[in-house]
Amino acid sequence: MEISTLTKERIKEFLAQDKRFDGRKLLDFREIEIETNVSKNAEGSCRVKLGDTEVIAGVKIDVTEPYTDKEEEGTLATIIELLPLSSPEFEYGPPRIEAVEIARIVDRGIRESGFIDFKKLCIKKEEKVFSVLIDIYSINNAGNLIDAACLASVIALKTAKMPKYDTKKEKIEYGEWTSKGLPLNENMPLTITFYKVGKKILIDPVKEEGDSSEARLSVALSNNGKEILINALQKGGGGVFSEEEVEKILDLAVDKFKELEEKVNKAVK
Amino acid sequence: MSYTKRVDGRKFDETREMEAKIGIIKNAGGSALFKFGDTIAIAAVYGPKPLHPQHLQNPSKGVLRCNYDMLSFSVTERKRPGPSRRSQEISKVSEWALSSIVDLDAYPNTVVDVHIMILQANASTRCAGINAAALALASAGVSMKELVSSVSIGKIDDKIVVDLIKEEEDCEEGEGATDIPMAFTKSGKICLLQLDGKIRPEELKEAIKAGKKACKEVYNVQKKALKGVEGKD
Description:
A: alpha+beta; 4-stranded antiparallel beta sheet; 5 helices; B: alpha+beta; 5-stranded mixed beta sheet; globular
């Protein structure tokens, strides 16, 4: 259900005075709740709540053939299902562009940062590698599914354990795990999406704010210990950004990355 | 060892040879071809026409639909025909880039269909596609506020380069390759911005400036094509 023009106008009036319906500042996150190991059978899993928005991400590991251009590297696949139980707007059926886009944003942040050491997921060159499958489900959509999905996925990866692998049968012994985690690097990627509503830039919109926005820019960043790098960008929506707005967003993204990183590190030991 | 010389001998801020042509598909209301060197995109526009099913119609403004795809043999390893997750995403970001310039308020209850096809690929296909699509829309006489021009900027190792080719995109030396497709409206607004790779915020700002400059060159090629002057540049 699209929101009414009246609500949109009221939201814009509020934002023009730097106010939001829920009392937050424009660059405040909602309360972030992170719960790990929410599924016993997943290799890793995480539930993230951003205010009323809730998503669950799970990691499963499988064995597959490597891609021909990367024959010594494991693979990654990311899928999000926008469940009809999480919003009256979502319907059953093949994934629509909304879901395809979110999954690709999540995937690119993780892949481009080099967070997963894919070379260590090689079992036998050219023949067998581990594939990492991230499945994300929306449980309640109250806005900003992109950032929630990215966050839940990264934490699910962080908490994942490698399953036991039977070298004779060349199969995974599902339900049994080793003590080892996934081969990950320190540079955890985090994604912050900036929404433009009228002339204002805000983050972590509730559903109504997101629907009032004409353009958004998702920024995936990671910290390699020496510096913070940008790993992925995605501009969405039919509106435009000026060069100055993008420069401002890049500066804000670095600050927000640090803030979010601290929150995640506190929540996941 | 930094990237000191481009594999194809171009200057760092030099695009490949561009070519633009309109009116290449007779059936379409408007059509165009755009080339960045070996990357060739064609686009066709059908509409504005009544949108079906009717419940999708918007009485206050028209709908722009964009579809991007590649010929199966446009790439070295055959691409399975039909939409992929990648092509769906590119269709959507191209649609967003174009909808910022098309005056959709002029066409209530209708749809404007933009079809983009990549005939031959050597990186920057979405940029070539958007450039062709903008020309196709203009040549169809669709009401537009301005033109849009797109180019892909890259960072190869530590150098900012304009209009990447595949070989540069796959570079793994030094700091590796970062690919940043972007599009600017004539008035300098950013309507497409994507990035894959590793780049410092300050370098990214520099890349955006380089993109803005390169898009002016793209614009000149597009303008020539629309004016019926030989679009080769």
